[in-house]
Amino acid sequence: MGLFKRNPFGHILFIKKWLIRILGTLTHRRFRGFNELQIDGSEIIRSLPDTNVLFISNHQTYFADVVAMFHVFNASLSNRDDSIKNVGYLWNPKLNIYYVAAKETMKAGLLPKILAYVGSISIERTWRAEGKDVNRQVKMSDISMIGKALDDGWVITFPQGTTTPFKPIRKGTAHIIKKYKPIVVPIVIDGFRRSFDKKGLRVKKKNILQSMEIKAPLEIDYENDSIAQIVEKIEYAIEQHPSFLKVIPQEELTAQEELNKLRKWKADNKKPLV
């Protein structure tokens, strides 16, 4: 790799590699130390082609969700099975991983700008801006940028466009799937909202069991499935369809809390994590 080789968005890959190494090392203990990330589906990551893969996921924090995926994807590609033990996988990270994010979020401060260099496809939200509801037309340039990223590698997107659970799936994701025909891999995450603040930058609570389930690619008929059908498939795949809404009995909540206590990390009883 040439020292000043750039990706299609003009980012110097040498700089991007070192940012991933540094940020990955600094954030590792957030998912293996302060909290414990339980992973399922590493073998699916290893089976994917190098380009035109779209990951769809529910969303719990602005940044921690994406950071955890960078860890899990690179660890999986380094032949770690459902584990991010030992940060050596960061030495040669996959450099063509991108994620879709709101432009206003990625401009809000120095750290978001650094994180944007790592792989953000920054787009304008059509329904909300500066904390207010808006109604904008989708920018074709935003769609084209996502297409460019798919052509170069993998793209992570959060189809609800918000960290609030059970909000509707934005149809734009379905249009992207119809247009570019990527392999669509669903991911379901949990525990991030309890672990971190809304931005995912500050550890709010320790000893939380986090989880990330990587599912088999969706079966999509790109030519014949309607936008509504694809939206429904996404809702079910990332477990955000209204049918997943239920009143959880107190007994189940208590059992989950006890399970968290049993699984929580205790520094005095564990070997150092590297």
What's the structural blueprint in terms of helices and strands?
Elements: H1 13-31, E1 36-40, H2 42-46, E2 53-57, H3 64-77, E3 97-102, H4 103-106, H5 110-119, E4 120-123, E5 128-129, E6 132-133, H6 140-152, E7 154-157, H7 171-180, E8 183-190, H8 192-195, E9 209-214, H9 227-237, H10 250-263
Parallel strand pairs: 1-9, 2-7, 2-8, 3-4, 3-7
Antiparallel strand pairs: 5-6, 8-9
Helix pairs in contact: 1-3, 1-5, 7-9
Protein model, in words:
- Helices cover 38% and strands 15% of the residues.
- With 274 residues, the chain is of the alpha/beta class.
- The chain has one domain: Glycerol-3-phosphate (1)-acyltransferase (3-Layer(aba) Sandwich), CATH 3.40.1130.
- The protein has a seven-stranded mixed β-sheet with strand order 1-9-8-2-7-3-4, with helices on both faces. Strands 5-6 form a two-stranded antiparallel ribbon.
- Strand 5 (128-129) and strand 6 form a beta hairpin.
- The longest helix is centred in the first third of the chain and has 19 residues, at 13-31.
- The two termini are 28 Å apart.
- The model has no long low-confidence stretch (mean pLDDT 88).
